[in-house]
Each structure stands twice: as structure tokens, then as C-alpha cells.
């Protein structure tokens, strides 16, 4: 099998035919994500943009922007292209986010506020797009009958665990984000007939017969990763980098969870 055939089989066809992920593209995307995150962090440092809590809050609407856009693509409101489905949606969302960051950073003294408002404005545009295509949507509010109680229980578990374990307390927002994502997967797969696209979760779901296994998977991966990050963190520079990596980890939980929830609510 030639290089093009390999690329076609493992990267193009899964997107073209909505086949989900495979081992090859999963590992490749993981490496690319890691390198891209480090590259973005270095660029921010070079531009003198300090990563802090205000910056993190300003990123929230852009996370919703990508998730909302992906759900609108699933609903047929936004055309399906390689840049509007995973993993391309991450690239297009990054381009929009980074462009907005550069423009607001150069044009406004209070650039964090301008960056935040720009993000919410873009989300508003997507909401208007949804309202103008309601004929394509069959809202399924029954999703909430499953999601609300299960999410409440899941988040309560994290709350009580955070009172006992300092590692969870310091990083509770990450556990909340990923348990939110796990709940959307659990609801979608076990109650609404959806399927899991990622390789390892799909294997574990098939093995156990339930997507509830996502809670255990996410908790284990997060706990191990955060423990190792604490072990290698020694300097202030290390702490800043780890905080940035944690933001990437948050996005990988919050954005897919939001996309799943919006997609299910839209009935697609």
C-alpha cells in the first residue's frame, strides 16, 4: 500500500464516510495536537500575551463556537467539509480564535474584554444561523430527562471527591468538564442510539456493554496525567506551561461534550 493509499484509508475516508477514528489517525492527531499546543504557547510568550484566568475565561466562547459549529454541521445548516467536521473543525476554530486574539491584542488596550466580546458575538452569529434554519431541526428535549439527573450525579461525585483529594480539588474544573463530556456520551450511546467515534472508548464500551465506562476512563486518565504534571513542575515557567496544557485538556472535554449535547438537542 502506497503513501497516498495509506493517507486515503486512515485519514481521508474516515472523514468522508463518517467512519470515526482509527488507531493510526488517533495517534497522529495526538502528536500533532501536542506539538501545536507547544507552538501556540511559545508564540503567546513571544507576543507578550500572559496566560491567566482572564484569558482562560475569554476562551470559553470560542470553545462553544467550535462545538456549536460542529453541531450545526451535523444538522445540515453548515455545509459538511473537511474544515467543519472533526478534526478539521479544530483547525478552523483555532484560525478564527487566533486571528481574533491577534486583532484585539493589537487594537484594544483592554484586549481581553474585546477578545471575549468578539467570541460571544461570533457565537451569536451561529445562534442567528440556527434560528434562520429551524425547518431543518427537530428539537429533542427528551435528552434533558436523561442528561440533567445524570450530569447532576456525576458533578456531585466530583464535588465530594474534591473535598477529600487535593489533586482533584486543584483541578476540579477539568474533572467537571470531562465528566460533563462523559455524561453526554453515556446518554447518547446508552439511551438514544448514538455511537462512539474514538478508538479506545469504543473498545471499552463494546467490552463492558455500557458507555458509563467513560467516567472511569476519564477519571483514570486525568488523575494519572495530572499527577505526572505535578511531579515534573518545578519552576514558575513550568507552572505556566502546565496551566496552558490544562486548558487544552479542558477544551478536549468541554468542547466535545457541548457538541454532543447540542447535537442531541437538535435531534441529529
Features:
268 residues; 0% strand; 3 domains; mainly alpha; single chain
Q: How would you describe the overall organization of this protein?
A:
By secondary structure, the protein is mainly alpha-helical. The chain has 3 domains: 1-48, no CATH class; 52-137, no CATH class; 139-268, no CATH class. Helices cover 78% and strands 0% of the residues. The chain is built from 11 helices and no strands. It has helices at residues 3-16, 23-47, 53-74, 88-107, 111-131, 142-162, 166-170, 172-191, 199-208, 213-232, 236-266. Helix 3 packs parallel to helix 5 (111-131), helix 3 packs parallel to helix 11 (236-266) and helix 8 packs antiparallel against helix 10 (213-232). The longest helix has 31 residues, at 236-266. It is globular and about 45 Å long. The two termini are 36 Å apart. The model has no long low-confidence stretch (mean pLDDT 91).
Q: Work out the strand percent.
A: under 5%
Number of domains: 3
Structural class: mainly alpha
Outline type = globular
Number of helices: 11
Our Rg estimate from Cα atoms comes to 19 Å
Q: Please give the alpha-carbon distance between the first and last residues.
A: 36 Å
Q: How many strands?
A: 0
Question: Could you estimate the helical fraction of the residues in percent?
Answer: over 70%
How does the SSE layout of this entry go?
Blueprint: H1 3-16, H2 23-47, H3 53-74, H4 88-107, H5 111-131, H6 142-162, H7 166-170, H8 172-191, H9 199-208, H10 213-232, H11 236-266
Helix pairs in contact: 3-4, 3-5, 3-11, 4-5, 6-8, 8-10, 8-11
